[in-house]
Structure formats: C-alpha cells, structure tokens
Design goal:
mainly alpha, 68% helix, 0% strand
C-alpha cells in the first residue's frame, strides 16, 4: 500500500531541509584568530606599525599554541612586518614556516628569504 501523497511530500521536505541545514553550516579550515581585522586596522591606520606587528604576533602565537592551521599568508605577513622592523633573522623563520605550510608559496618565500638574508648581511641567500 502506498503512503498518502502528503506524507511523501513531508518526507521529501524534511530530507531537503536537513540537506540545506548541513550545507549552511559554516566550516573553516584555518584559524583566523582576528587576522582579517588586524589587516583591516593596519590598512586603515598604517602609521601605527608597532601595534600592527604586536597584533599579528598575538594571532600567530595563538594559532601555534592551539596547533591550528594558519590561513595562507599569515606567516609571510608577520615575517614581512618583522623584516620592516629590521629583524631579518626572525623574518626568515616565518617565511620558512609559510613555505612549509603552503608549498605553493615556496618560490616567493625563497625570494623573501634571500632578501632578508641580504639585509642581515648574510649574502648566501639559498633555498629553504
């Protein structure tokens, strides 16, 4: 015996609703930790560079402590900020971390590492 049509429609509606609920769940692969708001604040007020670097550092350290995957560009951004502050050796560490976490950035990070090493007086450059 067939189920009444209204039961079939209700069943289909429930399946559709469940599928929509599952699709609407937001998932993220990275721990942003306020990285986007830190960048926005810096673009809005670039003159406060020291505060920007400290906020980036807090985001990076929090993600490292959680063992979370950082979003693409975060380590590179922090490394570049360190480089601008005259800390090329520290910058290299974060460029290497960016390259290890995001292999597609390797060529660019190698170039950044060479530039940082030139700034530190270590002209050997080299690869990762």
């Amino acid at each position: 015996m067939r189920a009444p049509r209204h039961r079939q429609r209700i069943g289909r509606s429930l399946v559709l609703l469940a599928a929509l609920c599952l699709c609407a769940c937001e998932t993220t692969h990275y721990t942003w930790g306020g990285y986007d708001s830190v960048l926005y604040a810096h673009y809005k007020a670039p003159q406060d560079h020291a505060a920007y670097v400290e906020r980036l550092k807090a985001v990076v350290l929090a993600a490292q402590q959680q063992g979370a995957l950082m979003p693409p560009g975060l380590c590179a951004e922090y490394g570049y900020a360190l480089l601008e502050q005259g800390k090329p050796d520290e910058a290299v560490l974060y460029f290497k971390q960016e390259s290890a976490q995001w292999p597609e950035s390797r060529l660019f990070m190698e170039k950044m590492i060479r530039n940082a090493r030139r700034k530190s007086g270590d002209a050997k450059g080299g690869s990762l």
